[in-house]
Amino acid sequence: MAIRQHKVRDLLLFVLLTGLRKNESATLEWKDVDLDDPSILIRHDVAKNGEEHRRSNIFC
Prior knowledge:
Distance between the termini: 30 Å
Mean pLDDT: 80
Number of strands: 3
């Protein structure tokens, strides 16, 4: 049970710190995360405005 609580806490913290919307965070895949850049790709099919965009400097 404690491990699950930590996973939920980590997910909520990630969503809060990145500013992702619920649908954006729910559909995020590892291929959308660039640790070298550091950025997250928000695909056009889940973005609110329907346009693909990248959130940068989220891992600072």
